[in-house]
Description:
By secondary structure, the chain is α/β, with parallel strands linked by helices. It contains 23 helices and 19 strands. The protein is elongated and about 85 Å long.
Amino acid sequence: MVDFLGIGVQKGGTTWLFHQLARHPQIAFPAGKEVHFWDRVDGSLVKQWLEILEPPSRSNTAGQPIRTGEITPAYASLPTETIRAIHAACPDIRLFISFRNPLERAWSAARMAMVRAQMLDSEVSDQWFIDHFQSAASRSAGDYSAIMERWLAVFPEEQLLTLLCDDIEDCPTRILDAISEHLGINPKGFAGLSAAALAERVVPLLTADQAYKRKPDLPPRPTLVPVLKDMYAPEVARIARFLGRDLTHWVDGFGVPAAYKRQPRREIRIGAKGAMAVDAWLAKGGTPAAPPATPSDDGAPGVNARRTRPALSVIAVFRDMAREAPRTLFTLSPGYQLGVDPWRYEVIVVDAGSTVPLDSDVVASFGPGFTLLRTPPSPSPSAAINEAVRLSTGEAVMICIDGARMLTPGVVRLTLDAFRTWPDPVVATLAWHLGPKIQNESMLEGYDQAVEDRLLESVDWRRDGYELFRIAAYAGSSKKGWFLPTSESNAVAVRRETFDRLGGFDEGFQTPGGGLVNLDFHRRACAAASPVIHLLGEGTFHQFHGGVATNVPQALHPFQTFHEEYKRLRGEAFSPPTAMPLVLGGMPWQALPFLEASIAEARAAHEG
């Protein structure tokens, strides 16, 4: 059963609605945003639609019911017979639609078409715009009264919630409260969202081949304002009567320069659209992929009971990192990680004997799959990591041995992509230090937590995590770059079977911080599984916290002690992995200097 459906309209704030709803612990979008099922296939395939949108579980880790659905603006224009097919499948489904000033919508849609055609404003005539305004597709998308008539001819009025883009901008909290009541979810699920987050302008992520779409919003041409007013004034009057709202400002204010001088909103870009699920189904000849497995509920002590098996368990280890932990956990949260459903991964936060323990409620606030595991103090985190993996439920595990390291927004999605592509890979993320140099050196020049706090405030990393590349330097282990082997990774992932086959992290490593245990695990994983995948354009970023190895002067670095322990346990000196990596990912512009350095290192190694 599908519980809700966002049916439009185009350019009506649906991406913002999707982004906010996806943050709620009772909402699931199993196929992402804009599934485009009903505008691409016929009404005889209801079973396939229900399977695509079936969530892994019908309740979250707190035991609250899950509401599942999708938002596709094109559904506003569906014909009546298709709407009847939806009603037959889900007669009690909750619907919502968000209307935008139709004059603004028509102008924005025309400009989007112009940009997609890679045309400049100076190359487009008034008549070109008028032809677009008058096209059947544009007129249909702006005929709000006809849209409402079609849907309400099939569904009762109480099942359709109407929203306005104006209210999303002016009173977003009230919008989320209305949706919570309409969908029957707890409005407190949005309580952690700040006013700044709710005020963000949310738009789809630009891929490398779509960069030409990054064009500024422009006010309508004065010569076109009367055309659109004449075209849409009657429709505005009709929809205003239906909604019982005064919407005269939609017509009277259109084209007025002052209306385009609002305080600019921060922009956040979110990941890929959900039509991929339907694409995959169609590519298989109309046979949908099986829904995710749902094993029995056998929760383990110390961790919330789980009714689903996520594809990935992230193990993040913290000890006395009250300052650093919230930043790291934010970078693992569903609101930050791009293009991945919250139910596809879980995060087990290990508090390895902190003097002031992490708060379980704070940990849980970062997402539906976040849980806290407290372990006794120990010089080494090895036993805590093995215990967390034993209690986790993912098909694969990612180990972040140092919780001080923030992640970039594509790490989880690309890791899942790697496990879908290869049967038994090792997935590794390269490492950086915040600051101008590795912190063992920069600390001698005055770099400390206060300097780092100001450095992080200088870039908008919460909106765009790739900004971290602009304020960081390669960690020593990663200085050879993406195209050559690395000695370790702070976000290394393997299948659970591989982790078990390796015996997990060797608990014989007992020097402070675990010594070379992370390097040892990475080396053994690279020898036992294949291929080694480096996540291109992604990274982890070390915060200054007084670590036993990363935040001491080079002259005092305990490597020799660590190495003696390694040789005692392994019977030989440590040597880094030699397997050449494959790379998977993209390249944010902020990381280009490191790409150039990686290419130079790879060329030098090849020529040498």
